[in-house]
């Protein structure tokens, strides 16, 4: 499948799949709302202040490119703080 997805689409797709942080399991409602506000008006917040991120369950480098379904199933929405903690471990 060669359809190109933007980062925005990937966020939407992951949000439809799960509204919970893939690491701590808590709801991302608040963070999602901030993200949507930022999307509508990027001057409102700094993106870096929004605690929403995408985690690669398997490190990107170990995945073959071009397999979209596998690529997407490897991603999950997380709190940025949870993802940072994971990265530091
Ligand atoms: Zn979390």
List the helices and strands and how they pair.
Elements: H1 7-17, H2 29-40, E1 53-56, H3 68-73, E2 75-78, H4 80-88
Antiparallel strand pairs: 1-2
The structure holds zinc ion.
The site of zinc ion has 7 residues, from loops.
What does this structure look like?
It is a single chain. The chain contains four helices and two strands. It has a two-stranded antiparallel sheet with strand order 1-2. Helix content is 43%, strand content 9%. The model has no long low-confidence stretch (mean pLDDT 87). With 89 residues, it is mainly alpha-helical. It has one domain. It has helices at residues 7-17, 29-40, 68-73, 80-88; strands at 53-56, 75-78. The site of zinc ion (ZN) has 7 residues, from loops.
Q: Keywords for this structure?
A:
single chain, 89 residues, mainly alpha, two-stranded antiparallel ribbon, 2 strands, 43% helix, globular, binds zinc ion
């Amino acid at each position: 499948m060669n359809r190109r997805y933007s980062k925005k689409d990937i966020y939407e797709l992951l949000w439809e799949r799960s509204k919970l942080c893939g690491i701590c399991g808590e709801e991302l409602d608040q963070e999602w709302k901030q993200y949507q506000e930022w999307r509508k008006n990027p001057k409102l917040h700094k993106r870096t202040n929004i605690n929403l991120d995408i985690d690669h369950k398997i490190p990107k480098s170990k995945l073959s490119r071009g397999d979209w379904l596998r690529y997407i199933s490897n991603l999950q929405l997380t709190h940025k703080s949870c993802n940072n903690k994971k990265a530091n471990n």
